[in-house]
Design brief:
The complex is a heterodimer of chains A (159) and B (414). Chain A contains eight helices and no strands. Chain B has 414 residues and is of the alpha/beta class. The chains are: A mainly alpha (159), B alpha/beta (414). The interface between A and B is large, with 45 and 46 residues.
């Protein structure tokens, strides 16, 4: 199913969700893009859905998306709500994050996986070098910090 | 011959743009209210906290009216201002969204008003934020909507000269502060100053590698400092939700309804931000489509809530004695009932375009005695579109904004 088609269905089901409780959310499968080919801006519902899947590696449960959607449509400062959602996803105790030791043992692997996880692409050599130097300079940086930076970056707003 | 008045400032006349008060709270007493059950008191005084009069509630429906706590005000709200008894929703379909849009934009609406997009005319929030001098951040303008469906669209228009950059902060507190949101969605990542700076630098690095001119649908935009205060306020309310501290905070038995909670959250917001412009709506009375007596009960509850709101304004530093409160239904309801009869034998009421009574409403303007004429009644013909120019006049930005079809409700002023 194409993403556009899937999102059409998502929008429709959200529209009628107040009447029907048997709702299926499906945003299809993302195709990795190379830098410069990410031209489609995620809408906010896509953003929430994709953010959940990127972190938890599973589809977002209907109840979780409904809670997010409720907050999103109830508050006018959308950037504030989206930031709140990202923070909440990162703070969930069910989320398994790489430990400091795991990052220290192989920072290159952590950065490579982070780029693939959120940007759906490989890090360039220059990017790898930059992040490895940052992690070496500041040992207080956690996976939660790095994930937050990636999830609030411009590139993550696109697919 | 009329001699010019020398003002305390030494001027002969008030400067253009002079303010009458620094805060306006506009309570859309919405959901469709007939004058018959409100100011005409045909069922007795269902609104004793707002309206003068001691007439008993009709005996056949009295059992369906929930007793409210005593009014927090020493006298009826109308005695603090002017009651306009002859206000018309003069043009456009007599629907709730049209009624809200007219009241908030000061423009007549038509059947072409879209229910999916922001209205085409600038809202009072945008007029205020664009034309008030000095201009103020969104933190000073709030739209508290009863529902998170449709009505949030009224915090700004699609007008090319206005739009989101002049929008109000909008919140539908009843859904936003529900348990699931309050427990699960929270701003809790605590970054120290140094860590926050590092985060910003790292994000800047990522952004420098991905240059896109993107335009997010971010709605209203707050600056960092204001956003921090808003987040702190949201977290404070969420904490109280989670601990159960906001379970029936007014002690209304057996429960507070959605209108009362919306007003409660408006009060909490005022205490934190003292906004210059706040619009809050009610909606409970729309149960009248099916249950006439419940409609009367909702009126009774809304009456207590509005008195509570005024009492809070008078106990909020920064707003006390410097706030004008305007209360007005967005539309009325039909004279001719529909066929649904409630358990008290009363037929229900719709609001359709062809029934003139669906266009009749009241408007109450209350405020400090040196600003608002006290204990006054005006039967002058007015319109719901008069509220926006009246707000603009009170806050002093009327001289700079485009003309509107409505008129200032001058009879309200001292």
């Amino acid at each position: 199913m194409s993403i556009a088609k899937a999102l059409q269905i998502l929008g429709l089901t959200l529209l009628i969700s107040s009447c029907q409780r048997t709702t299926i959310y499906d945003v299809g499968t993302q195709t990795p893009n190379i830098p410069g080919q990410k031209n489609e801006l995620k809408d906010d519902l896509q953003f929430m859905t994709i953010a959940y899947r990127d972190l938890y590696e599973e589809e977002i449960p209907v109840s979780v998306l409904e809670t997010m959607r409720k907050a999103y449509v109830s508050f006018g400062d959308k950037a504030l709500v989206v930031d709140e959602i990202v923070q909440s996803l990162l703070l969930n105790p069910d989320l398994e994050l790489p430990t400091q030791q795991e990052i220290a043992d192989d920072p290159g692997a952590f950065i490579s996986q982070t780029y693939k996880r959120f940007f759906l692409r490989d890090a360039s050599d220059f990017e790898l070098a930059f992040w490895e130097s940052q992690l070496a300079e500041d040992e207080s940086l956690t996976a939660q910090d790095i994930y937050y930076v990636f999830m609030t970056s411009s590139e993550y707003k696109y697919y | 011959m009329t001699l010019p008045t020398i003002l305390p400032s030494g001027r002969l006349f008030a400067a253009t743009g002079a303010r009458r008060a620094n805060h306006v709270v506009f309570c859309l007493f919405a959901g469709g209210v007939r004058n018959m059950e409100s100011i005409l008191q045909n069922e007795g005084n269902l609104m004793p906290a707002m309206l003068k009069g001691n007439s008993s509630i009709s005996s056949d429906i009295a059992g369906g009216i929930t007793p409210m706590p005593g009014s927090p005000l020493p006298k009826a709200l109308q005695e603090y201002g002017t009651l306009f008894t002859n206000i018309k929703f003069s043009d456009g379909p007599t629907g709730h969204f049209n009624g809200h849009a007219s009241a908030i934009t000061g423009q007549h609406t038509t059947e072409n008003l879209s229910l999916r997009t922001n209205p085409p005319f600038p809202t009072v929030f945008e007029l205020y934020r664009k034309h008030n001098s000095p201009s103020h951040a969104a933190k000073n303008a709030w739209w508290l909507s009863h529902s998170n469906s449709l009505y949030p669209l009224l915090n700004h228009s699609s007008h090319p000269s206005y739009g989101a950059q002049y929008a109000a902060n909008q919140i539908a507190p009843n859904p936003f502060f529900q348990w699931d949101v309050s427990v699960n969605l929270r701003h809790e990542l605590q970054f120290t100053d140094q860590k926050a700076a590092t985060i910003d630098e790292l994000r800047s690095y990522l952004d420098s590698n991905f240059r896109k001119t993107y335009s997010l649908n971010n709605g209203v935009v707050n600056n960092d400092q204001d956003r921090e205060q808003i987040v702190s306020w949201l977290k404070g309310i969420q904490d109280r939700v989670v601990t159960g501290a906001l379970s029936n905070p007014w002690g209304v038995q057996p429960y507070m309804n959605g209108d009362q909670y919306n007003l409660f959250f408006a009060e909490e917001l005022m205490k934190e931000f003292q906004p210059e412009l706040l619009v809050v709506n009610l909606f409970g009375v729309d149960v009248a489509h099916d249950e006439y007596t419940e409609y009367c009960d909702a009126l009774h509850r809304a009456d207590y809530g509005v008195a509570h709101l005024w009492d809070t304004i008078q106990n909020t530093p920064g707003m006390k004695d410097d706030t004008v409160l305007i209360v007005m239904p967005e539309i009325g309801r039909n004279e001719t009932p529909n066929t649904i009869v409630d358990q008290y034998g009363r037929p229900a009421l719709d609001h359709t375009n062809g029934d003139p009574m669906a266009r009749d409403v009241f408007c109450m303007v209350v405020g400090p005695p040196d600003v608002i004429s006290q204990d006054s009644i005006s039967s002058d013909l007015g319109a719901t579109v008069d509220v926006v120019p009246t707000i603009a006049n009170i806050l002093g930005f009327d001289t700079d904004m485009p003309s509107l079809p409505g008129n200032v409700l001058n009879a309200a002023f001292s």
